[in-house]
Amino acid sequence: MRRCVLWAVLVVGAACGSSTEPGTVTKPPAGDKTAPEITNVTLPSPYTLVYRDTLSITFQVTDPGGLQLVSAERLVFADAPNANIIDTITLNGRVASTDTVRFPGPQIDVHLPAAQITIHAVDLSGNKRDSTFLVYFTIPPSVTGGVTYKGQSTAVVPGDTVDLEVSASDGIALEWLGYRIGAPVAFTDSVAVVGTSASHDFPLVVARDWVQQSGATVTYFARNSRGDFAVGSAGANVIDGVRRAATRVPLHGAVADAAFDTKRNVLYLSQPDSDRILVFSLATNTFGTPIVIAGAPAGIDLSLSGDSLLVALRRAAAIGILDLNSGAKTQIPIPVNGGVGVEPQNLRMSANGLAIVTMSALWFTTPSGIFEFDPLYKTVLPRTEIGAVSTYTTDAMIVRSADRQKVLIALLYDPRWPLYDAGSNSFVTPNHGAYVAGALSTTTRGDRFLYGPLLYDGSLNLIRQVASPTGGPTVLTADGLAAYFGNPFGYQAFRTSDDGVIARVVSAPFTGRVLLTPAGDRLISISDSELVLEDLK
Questions:
Q1: Angle 368-370-374 from CA coordinates, rounded to 5°
Q2: Could you count the other beta carbons within 10 Å of the beta carbon of residue 81?
Q3: Per-residue pLDDT at 1
Q4: Measured on CA atoms in the order 506, 509, 514, 516, is the torsion positive or negative?
Q5: pLDDT value at position 272?
Q6: Where are the beta strands (DSSP E) in 149-296?
Q7: What is the rounded radius of gyration, in angstroms, for the C-alpha atoms of the chain?
Q8: Contact by Cβ (8 Å): 486, 473
């Protein structure tokens, strides 16, 4: 499309001269009442110019009594800084002048498709004449476009195919739709179309060069029969990784906690709102018969033998013991203050046979607490030696090491986190010094903790922040050498020592709580709507 520029007035025709020069008048005739004549106006025919084209107008002004000045005014019917433009030519008594003025065309985003032009002429006696006319501009084609992804993915990797959908319309007739991709891809394509509206899908194979651009920008265009262009741009979310197929299993309802049962190769998922615990087979990727247990089951963990499931029953103010062999269910009450709504929320079984239980209250400022539960003697006792921080555990996160030697309780509003050691049956409250929202995970021996992207040692001293460009939920590997970050497209794995990239995978959304199986061979995301499982082997 031709672009507009603001031109200075160009005067041609009668030449300037002195008072004795033919064709000029130094003094207007007495009693002159005749206004100047404006003739021979030459302007573009209607709809021959497109928005932003330069508007060129030629006209002749005559007056036997001598001309003082002539001006041309462009008005484009919009309240904008460049709506009104006036060019003035001083004529110094000439009796005739032929002039050309050039104006920038109106802008498509703020102006109507027309411009009003008025020629003002004034003679030496002050007589005036105006001549007004309209110039109509054509509207270039309108075009829209966008990249659509195959399936449910919103990201692509080299080798994938996406569709560029281009649609356009025009008041006269369209001729071409197309696109181009700049360097380093440097590719273009187009198709001939007919009619005043058209659409076309261009399949685009994602090249590795797209990665260099952090997602290639695709410029799409439409051209009409007059050669007028309209353009737009779209981009693709290109990740320098691989595509893998994930298993996605529908899951209805919020999950409070999850526990792996390695003896039976299942994953237990507690759902307090449904008074049940889901049983998911990791062998068949299917749900079995759920375990119905009243009292809003929340936190869950396996006993040391792996033959019982311990359950924090919030509404029942009790700890439930479910025998996984016989199906027998037992409840042990927890002595709590029911008046402030305190109830058991989370628990983890430690290596010394005691389960650490965190309590929850209706309000964060209401004292709740930490208890120990002994499944052998069926006793529940408060742990108060930690001090004031031990009483505010509402909605705290809890994690234990795979060897059950350490249990860490992550408080929401205090960086002093209770850390339990099973060997000494004691708590310490190291101050990790950060308030970062995120998941909590640990290694087999509890010698590393990952809180969101922050990596700590076994005493909660900060080691470093593990970088991820997309953030998302995290989980630490059993040896602590790598961390997985989930994202809406899949997941990424980084070395915790130096952020070296281990894997970038596009598969399915890993946006819920992210877990690694005890063997480290599968990555699992748990959301309110689905389980997503990825084989890491």
A1: 135
A2: 7
A3: 33
A4: negative
A5: 96
A6: 161-169, 174-181, 187-192, 197-205, 217-224, 229-235, 242-243, 247-250, 257-261, 266-271, 276-281, 286-287, 291-292
A7: 39
A8: yes
CA separation (Å) from 64 to 16, 28, 371?
16, 9, 110
Report the pLDDT value the prediction gives residue 45, as an integer from 0 to 100: 83
Q: Which helix (H) or strand (E) holds 209?
A: helix 209-212
Q: Cβ contacts of residue 498 below 8 Å, gap of 6+?
A: none
Structure tokens at 58: 């030629």
pTM here?
Answer: 0.74
Going by C-beta distance under 8 Å and a sequence separation of 6 or more, which residues neighbour residue 479?
443, 444
Alpha carbon distance, N-terminus to C-terminus of the chain = 55
CB 257 within 8 A of CB 176: no
What the block records as the tokens of 119 is 């020629």
Give the pLDDT of residue 428: 95
Put the strands of the sheet holding 513-516 in their side by side order.
Answer: 247-250, 530-535, 522-526, 513-516
Asked if residue 463 lies in contact with residue 450, where contact means CB atoms within 8 angstroms, the answer is no
Residue 243 pairs in a beta bridge with 506
Note whether 431 and 416 are within 8 A (CB).
yes
Sign of CA dihedral 418, 421, 427, 428: negative
- Within 13 A of 478's CA, how many CA atoms are on the CB side? 12
Contact criterion met (CB below 8 Å) for 522 and 536? yes
Q: What per-residue confidence (pLDDT) applies to 96?
A: 92
DSSP states of 69-118 as a string?
A: EEEEEEE-SS-STTSEEEEEEEEEEEEEEEEEEEEPPPPTTTS-SEEEEE
Please state, in angstroms and as integers, the Cα–Cα distance from residue 182 to each residue in 160, 176, 220, 370, following that order: 19, 19, 11, 61
Say how many C-beta atoms besides its own lie within 10 A of residue 381's C-beta.
13
- Specify the pLDDT at position 390: 74
- 3-class SS string, 446-469: CCEEEECCEEEECCCCEEEECCCC
Burial class (CB in 10 A: 0-12, 13-18, 19+), 24: buried
Contact call for residues 263 and 282 (beta carbons, < 8 A): no
Type of residue at 318: A
In whole angstroms, give the CA distance from residue 508 to residue 433.
Answer: 34
**Cis amide leading into 184 (omega within 30):** yes
pLDDT along the chain (537 residues), means of 10: 31 31 78 93 82 85 92 71 76 90 70 80 94 84 88 80 93 91 85 96 87 72 87 87 94 95 97 97 97 96 97 95 96 77 91 96 74 95 84 90 97 90 96 80 97 94 84 93 94 94 93 96 96 95
Residue 474 bridge partners (DSSP): 485
Q: What is the pLDDT of residue 15?
A: 31
Q: Are the C-beta atoms of 16 and 23 separated by less than 8 Å?
A: no
